[in-house]
Every structure is written in structure tokens, then in C-alpha cells.
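Progress report, Aim 2. The chain analyzed during this reporting quarter is listed below.
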Amino acid sequence: MIGIAILFAMGVFVALMMTRRLATPLALFALAIVIGILLGLPWIGKSESILGGIVSAGAVTLATTMVTVIFGSWLGAVMDETGIAQSLVRKAVELGGERPYAVAFGVWFVSIFVGTVTGSAPAAILIGLIGIPAMLAAGVPPVVAASTIVVGLACGNPFQLQTWNYLSQALGVPIGDVQAFMLRFFPIVLAGGIVFLLVQARFAGRVRAWAVNVGVPPKRVPGYALITPVIPIGLVLGSAALRAPIDIIPAVFAGILYGVLTTQPRRFNSIMLKTAYKGLELAAAPTYLFIVIGMLLTAVRMPGIVPAMKPIVNALAPHNPWAYAILFGAFAPLALYRGPLNIVGMGVGIAGVLLTLGTYPALLILGTFASISVIVGVSDPTSTQTVWSAEYSGVRPEAVMRLTLPYTWAIAIAGIILAVLLYLR
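Predicted C-alpha cells for the chain:
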């Protein structure tokens, strides 16, 4: 009965989030408290309690991820303040000339680089403020222009260090294993992005090109400063190959220093402080979300969860590898609208239950939810990057969802199959 009540509570809060009657952080916080109540936990105590365990201890469960997000946002702010991001986009636009989909490919390619640094609306803004007007001016349809931004960011996400940290902490998987899967998953996402743009170039056509003002002249940025986005990931992967691994946070900070020193070294102090404060502002929303996600993770790891959920999961969970792939592949769009398969939301509770019960290998769960997250990052009409890109292009977020979902769904299925082949034998 307790297990059924927990599932019912999850369903209720998913519905409240999908209908936007309750904000995601509030819904996840409330669900964590409700799970604690249903498990019969005391309100006061150090560890196995609602206030001391779920709320207090849970709030700092993802502390490393939160700090990584802050540093990643700081690097994004540096790229904006110094003109690095704008220069990257303008060079891509210049190479495309008057060919609409050459411009779109260039903007998409730059979006991949920025996507390795930061995600959500700030990343879309960094690229879109110049990239979207440039695509529209070249004749790319507005919905394709908006979609190009978020598809590019999703292609860079497998290399985003904040994503590695979050998945590692949330799923209890060593960061090296997260890195290994994401590197294998990257070619699938990249191929999906290329197919998306090729299909649009073949069938979407073009609209009448207008003379669109793409902004003020850019700040002068040396060519060698444009590699700033790849400095952190280069340090992490390169040092790992040399068996002298550098942690993620120092690697991101190295990128920050490189970006400032190679562009405006004379203003080092002022730019470092200004962008540090801006980075905190940009990181505020995801940081609060990670706080409540930590609480939900703690709730579903409480001792009483195993006897409550095990009979239900054992009855419903497929153990045949292809049945598993078919089930999660078919229901992958349930990640939309902050649904139950969204790993940065309610999905962390589902994943936590499966991990606690030991139903599937942790790496399989990692691969499954990491693959499904592509749908969230591109096609979810409630994702901040999708909302901003769509509205700035003059279309509804739902139009981006309709255009991109066939591609992101296919990418998610391919990623799940990859995870099954790797980890479920």
C-alpha cells in the first residue's frame, strides 16, 4: 500500500507540474516531504528523519554539482562579456554567406561549442542574440532557426562537465563511467543533429530573406581566444589520458582565466568580479532546482523505500534487454513537460528507486536517462532554452517540439539501445 501511495503522489505532482499549477522546485520539495511522511519517518532527527535527513542533508547532496554549475555559468558570462561567443557566431555567419542552411550549419556548430560550457537559457541567449537574426536574414524559417540553437546545444551537452557531475552525484556512478558513456553517446547525438539540418535544408525550404540588424559591431577578440570553450573539456580528457586527472572545477576555472587573459588582460580584476557576480545570477535557478532534487534523492534512498517499492517494480520492470529498450524507448517522451522520465526533475525519483532496489545496473540507468535527456533539452516546451529561442524567433515553443521531437525521440531510442548493449547482457 505504501508503494502504491508513493506512485500516486508522484503522479499527482507530475500532473501539477505539467499543468503549471505548481513550480517544479516546489513540487519536488513537496514530493520529498510526502514520501518521508508515507514512509513513517519522524520529523526530527539527524539522518533518517524528514527535517534532519531529507531537508537538511538532502539540500547539500548535490553540492559539488551546484558549485560546478556556478563555475560553468561564470565561464559563460566571461564568453559573453569579452565578446568570445559573439565572435564565434559572427565567424560562422560570415562563412555561411547568403546560403541559408550554410548559415544554419555554422550557428549549429558554434552552439555545440557553447553547449559544452553551459546550458539552458543563458547558452541560448549567447548564441541566439546574433545567430537567430542572422539565420532569419538568410531566409531560414523561424521555427528551424529556433530549433537549430537548441539542437546544437544538445549536441554539446555530452561534453558538458556540469552534466557529468550531476549524473555522477545523482546516480552514484563514478564520473569516469559517466564520461565513458557520454563519449560513446556523442556520435549518436551529433548524427541526429546533422540529419535534422539536412532534412530541413531539403524539405523546409526558405522564407523571404530580410535585412535584419544582427547587433552592434563585435568586440575585437584574438583568434586564439576562440578556443576558450574547449579549454575545460580538453584539460579533463587530456589529463585523464595522461593518468594525471584534473578535477572539473579547476578545469573550468582555467577556462575562465584563459578567456579573460587572452581578451582583456588589462581589465582582469574588473571583468573577473563582474562575470563572477553575473555567473551567480545565471546559476541561481538551476542551483535551487538541484537543492530540491537532492532532497528528493535522499527521500527515495531512505530505508523504508525498498520494502515499499520492490514488489511493484519486480512485477512491472522488464528484464529482457529488448523489452527494456522497447519500454523506455516508447515512453521516452514522458520526459516532456517535466514528466516522470525527466532526470532533472521527477525522473531522479524514479531512477533513485530503481537504483535503491538494485533492479538494473547503475550504468544502464545512467545511459537510459542520459539518452532521454536529449528530448528535454531540445523538444520540451517548458525548457528555458527552448522557450527563449522560440520566442526570440517569433514562434511558439510547441512548434519547436513538433518539429524536433521525431529526431530527439530517435536519438533517445538509439542511446537506450547503446546502453542496453553495453550494460544489460
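The two ends are 33 Å apart (CA to CA). The chain has one domain: 2-423. These observations will guide the mutagenesis work planned for the next reporting period.
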